[in-house]
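Q: How would the C-alpha cells look for this protein?
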Amino acid sequence: MSWTILIVAGLLEVVWAIGLKYTDGFTRLWPTVVTLLAMVLSVWLLGIAMKTLPVGTAYAVWVGIGAIGTAILGIFLFSESASIGRLLSLLLIFAGIVGLKLFTS
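A: Here is the predicted structure in C-alpha cell form.
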C-alpha cells in the first residue's frame, strides 16, 4: 500500500510542478488553488509512505516520478526539447526508480 501512496504522491508532484507554470507567478486564482492543494497533498502522502518505506528510497522515487512526469508533460504541453539525450536521461531516472523498488526490503 505504501508504494501505491508514494506513486500517487509523485503524480501529484507532477500536477503542482506543471501547475506552477499556469499560475503565472501565483496571480491566477484557480491554477494557484489547484497547485497549492496538489503541493500539500503530495507532501502529505509522501509522509504517509515514509512511515513504512526508507526515507531515501521514498524521497528518490517521489522526486523521480515528479521529474519524469514533469519533463514528459513539458515536451507535450510546452514544446520543450525531446532530444534523444534528454529522453535517454529520463529513461535512466526510470531505471533508478525501478531499481529502488526491486531492491528495497
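The longest helix spans residues 55-78.

Helices lie at 2-23, 29-49, 55-78, 84-102.

Upvote if useful.
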